[in-house]
Please model this.
Amino acid sequence: MIPLKDNIPARRVSFANTALIGLNAAVFIYLLIHSGRQGSLLFARYSLIPAKITSGAASHLSLSQRTIPFLSYMFLHGSWLHLLGNMWSLWIFGDNVEDRLGHLRYLLLYLLCGVAAACLHVLLNLGSRIPTVGASGAIAGVMGAYFILYPHARILTLIPLLLIFPLIEIPAYFFLGAWFFIQFANAFFGFFSGNEALASIAWWAHLGGFVAGIVLLQLVGGKPKRSR
Model:
């Protein structure tokens, strides 16, 4: 399922959401330009590598070297497709959540969800040496907040079915519920089946971010509007 747009217009300019998209794009372009040794070193330093944080070697790292990756990893992406997919989802769901929370509270929600997603990923992959990058954990938190704030919004969705690509309007609670189920199924089978292709994707980070978005929404003061 590929979301194209929702039917909830934002009432104000989403400065924070637009800035996050711009920052992610700028970091990707910078690393693309410096794709040699310097870019590789920066990518390795600021991506989230669980084993680097949890192993005995971590004792030789400074506090900043151990903690900064929990924030910096969410501004790194491995490919154009990875970046565009994440930023498209953020563009669709982020403006409405920011509209309800305000710029600063939205930014706080986004960052905390990204950190929560990283913590769960590290906890379940203590010995992994695979660099984890991408904004999907933080964006999952935004989607979790959207799930609570706008459950009856309509999401125009492209459904790839072999050679047919129908466009269907789906209620947000169904779209996001199905998305959560898919992430859980992939996380479960990747964790217990030993499938390296599935296990290499941070499915648990997506789940952790989504749940964090629902929980943190209550702490930052977001409440769904009652329907008449």
